[in-house]
Amino acid sequence: MELTIVGIDIAKKKFDVALLLGKKGKSGIFHNTPDGFAMFALWLTTRHGVECAHVCMEATGTYGEKLALYLHRAGHVVSVVNPAKIKGFAQSELSRTKTDKADAALIARFCRAMRPEAWQPPAPEVKKLQALVRRLEELNGMLTQEKNRLATADEVVKPSIEEVILVLQERIKHLRQLISEHIDGDPGLCSKRDLLESIPCIGPTTSAMVLAEFGDVERFGDARHMASFCGLTPRHRQSGSSVRGKSRLSKTGSSRIRRALYMPALSAIRYNPVIIAFRKRLLANGKSKMVIVGAIMRKLVHIIFGVLRSGRPFDPAIAAAA
């Protein structure tokens, strides 16, 4: 049975809905709150007779996570797609209208045409780890900001900034301890962390981020799919004989993973034998330094996929072919 299509444009306080039902379709606006979720569910079932729908929304940070989970638990098929895909679809339609209502209708048409894969919520232990890791990332960002302020601050405010820095450092230390205890307390996460940290240059911070953001590695068909999720696949610009632009990372994926893998990639250049040999080949082929770093990050994702999928620690012979 073909499911009714629903597109949702999500915002912080509300979400717009487009229901493809008949020729004209229906639209609505609801609060982005639990009460709003319930009103939306009633709107679907009692007003339009829709018991099960294919609901599509963009991956827009934390604004849509609770709604996606609510709809998934209610038995709907939910797709959470990269906004770049919606943007590309809009360009293919030569769409010029940009309103929340129009965006919801656009997302619905995308869902009907492309049939994106169903979203699966992360396991509870992964969801908790994700919350802890993302909070740690926020605190580290705040600490960097305060340290930058301290460098140029007037003497009268330096004590205040130093006090905030000390508090942040204590909070960061405590949060790292919570992350470590959470992983230690879950056999599955603990086993995967040990596998990840068997890879030279992957430490506790990176392994926690990988476990939090990747979730179950089985949801990726292969290592290339995993690299695409991170936005680490190359984007080529070549057409005929006149257009030969430089290849760049697509960056249409998880920026958190890219940030988390950047420093390990630089470390791997010095300490990971597989990466050292890989870099030498790229240098011999005339690749630039930044292209090489991007390729190394992608190589690390392939190695990560290999150890998690196989359940075996890092093996240089196997990793060299990844």
Explain the overall architecture:
The strands form two sheets. The chain has a five-stranded mixed β-sheet. Helix 8 (204-214) runs antiparallel to helix 10 and helix 10 (255-271) packs across helix 11 (273-284). The chain has helices spanning 34-48, 65-73, 83-92, 100-114, 124-152, 158-184, 187-196, 204-214, 223-229, 255-271, 273-284, 289-310, 316-319; strands spanning 4-10, 14-20, 26-31, 53-58, 77-81, 234-239, 243-249. Strand 6 (234-239) and strand 7 form a beta hairpin. The chain has 13 helices and seven strands. The chain has three domains: 4-114, 2-Layer Sandwich (Nucleotidyltransferase, domain 5), CATH 3.30.420.40; 124-211, no CATH class; 218-238 and 247-319, no CATH class. It is α/β, with parallel strands linked by helices.
Give a quick rundown of the structure.
The chain has 322 residues and is of the alpha/beta class.
